[in-house]
Amino acid sequence: MRTILKIIAAPFVLALILIVAVLTFLSCVAGAVCIVACVGLSLLAILCLLAGQTVGCIAMFVLAFLVSPFGLPALGGWLVERLHSVKYAAMDFMAS
Q1: Of 7, 18, 11, 28, which is closest to residue 77 (Cα–Cα)?
Q2: How far apart are CA 49 and CA 82, in angstroms?
Q3: pTM of structure
Q4: Which DSSP letter does residue 48 get?
């Protein structure tokens, strides 16, 4: 019975390996883009503050935090790490 489950799980493990590789690459690229966007949004927030637009300034700082390495890229990295864990668990199941 266990051998049948391993045969059924093999395509899913292969798909999971490919998905994790692609998402890891995209996470690295998105992180680099987000750093540039964070700097731009921070500069816009400072300009809004100097212009007296406090609501716009706060909104820009919130957006800058979300695209900073502590915001959405950190969440994406955490999700990719969870997928890595699932991938290794599935590969251990296949090897046992």
Answers
A1: 28
A2: 39
A3: 0.75
A4: H
38 burial via Cβ count (<10 Å: 0-12, 13-18, 19+) = buried
Q: Which contacts (CB < 8 Å, 24+ apart) does range 17-23 have?
A: 17/87, 19/83, 20/80, 20/83, 20/84, 20/87, 23/80, 23/83
* Residue 26 neighbours by CB under 8 Å, 6+ apart: none
Query: 9-50 pLDDT, tens per residue?
Result: 899 999 999 999 999 999 889 888 888 888 888 999 999 999
16 token code pair: 């999971």
Amino acid symbol at 54: T
69: phi then psi, degrees, rounded to nearest 5:
-60, -10
